[in-house]
Amino acid sequence: MSKAVKHSDIKIRIGLDESNMPVSMNWQAQDAGQEPQACKAMLLSLFDRDSMETLKIDLWTKDMQVMEMDRFFFQTLRAMADTYYKATQNAQLASEMQRFVQYFGEKTEILPPSKS
């Protein structure tokens, strides 16, 4: 394993209401030198080195609409299929994943129905 020569922080700040439900979310990347950016939802998955299990945090604000969640998932699924291909070079399975993304996009009306 390589030795880290630098560290970088990504900060996520969640504002909660009296019932501990997210009402605001901001994120900031140290290396980007940016001000905190508002967002409505996040999916964070971490693969634990020892247990070989995926740990996850899924949060969204109370004002996130269903159509926004559909778009968020469509874009996330599309990016996951791309990332899977880049990491594994498994073109066949990545293509199958993209087919599901197309189906999901059509069913949620993010994409127009394909003409087949």
Describe the structure.
With 116 residues, the chain is of the alpha+beta class. It folds into 2 domains: 8-62, no CATH class; 65-109. It has helices spanning 66-88, 91-107, and strands at 10-16, 22-29, 37-39, 41-47, 54-60. The radius of gyration is 18 Å and the shape is globular.
Summarize the entry for a quick read.
The chain is of the alpha+beta class. The chain has helices at 66-88, 91-107, and strands at 10-16, 22-29, 37-39, 41-47, 54-60. It has two domains: 8-62, no CATH class; 65-109.
Estimate nothing, just give the exact number of structural domains.
2
| Sequence stretches where pLDDT stays below 50 over 5 or more residues | none
Q: Average pLDDT value?
A: 95
Tell me the fraction of residues in β-strands, as a range. 25-35%
Number of strands: 5
What's the number of helices?
2
Write the layout of secondary structure elements.
Blueprint: E1 10-16, E2 22-29, E3 37-39, E4 41-47, E5 54-60, H1 66-88, H2 91-107
Antiparallel strand pairs: 1-2, 2-3, 4-5
What distinguishing features does this structure have?
116 residues, alpha+beta, 34% helix, two-stranded antiparallel sheet, three-stranded antiparallel beta sheet
